[in-house]
Design a protein that fits this description.
Layout lengths: L35 E8 L2 E2 L3 E4 L10 H5 L2 E3 L2 E5 L5 E4 L1 H14 L7 H14 L11 E10 L12 E10 L7 E6 L16 H5 L2 H9 L4 E5 L7 E4 L3 E6 L2 E4 L10 H12 L3 E4 L4 H9 L3 E8 L3 E10 L2 E4 L9 H13 L10 E3 L2
Parallel strand pairs: 9-10, 9-16, 13-14
Antiparallel strand pairs: 1-2, 1-3, 1-8, 4-7, 5-6, 5-7, 6-18, 7-8, 10-11, 12-13, 12-15, 15-16, 16-17
The structure holds 2-OXO-4-methylpentanoic acid.
Amino acid sequence: METISTLYIPVNRAYHSRISEVDWDNLDFGKYTTDHMLICDYADHGWQAPQIIPFGNFSLSPTTLALHYGQTIFEGLKAFRMEDGSINIFRPQKNYDRMLLSAERLCMPMVSMELFLEGLRRLVELEKDWVPGQKDSSLYLRPFIIATETKLRVKVSDNYRFAIVASPTGAYYQQPVRVKVETDFVRAAHGGTGYAKCGGNYGASFYPAQRAKEQGYDQVLWTDGRENKYIEESGTMNVFFLLGDQLVTPPLSDSILDGVTRDSLIALADREGIKVAERPVSVEELEHALESKTLHEAFGAGTAAVISPISVIGIRGKDYMLPGEGLRPGIGSRLKEVLEKIRCGREADVFSWNFIVK
Ligand code: COI
């Protein structure tokens, strides 16, 4: 995908680079941040001039609205090193569209598509040496907006900051994931903010996730807020199940995040001739499929998590082990490989997903 922009973004370069501090073999998610970040403030009903400056702390008043009432939204996307040495940001327009929805739900102004894309491009161009080349690694990009008006009154903020920070990263989960089907707590209710990528959704999920961890799981598998009957998504990713010969994922709703990886996998599975369906999956169906061994594979899909195989599903105190991939790679691995090939330029980008930086 090609775009031409005349947007000027001044760069104030860092005096010293911290790149030599990186342990490239242990890229723990979010541990390292690159030398620069983009910032742009909203004041007087408009976005001011963006700039790229050395990565550093924000100075915030203790009464900054975001700190109290959670008016914050974010995105997660990745830049990959391509075979020919160029750098590719994967599907940033899709992240833009989702952030627009999040902004609307949280009553926040959204930056222009031009600022979003050009900001990402300029930052990644500047930080090109920070884009790792080894398998399963990339430069994770985190655009976000926070409410910056200083006032304790409960109100929609008049001021905001948009920022993009970047972090070289490896695999989010090192091992197949053990998930617990959560039927006591909910992540999102109908009419709530489940489809938005807002900070509050994550903060509110920590307590059930922490309890699940204490019980030996890595994550929860959320069920719907009305009846706790249907599977929705996992804490950091959407979910897919290979039920019989069909790859099934819960349909989007206002309580499920419209994952970019989810969307990409549906398109790829379809192209690969894999039967794929977006339909409700009840806990009962899952339990039955586990008992009758017709659930052959389950995996999570997300920008950070990419495709993470699920090894155990806990339902109401009973743990079901999934068979694993055995001798032949499963559908999750197959789709992951195709996705990686497209992102790194080893296979044609037939869907025009790649946004080439250099
Ligand atoms: C992502 O996959 O980008 C996410 O935002 C999930 C999590 C790391 C917050």
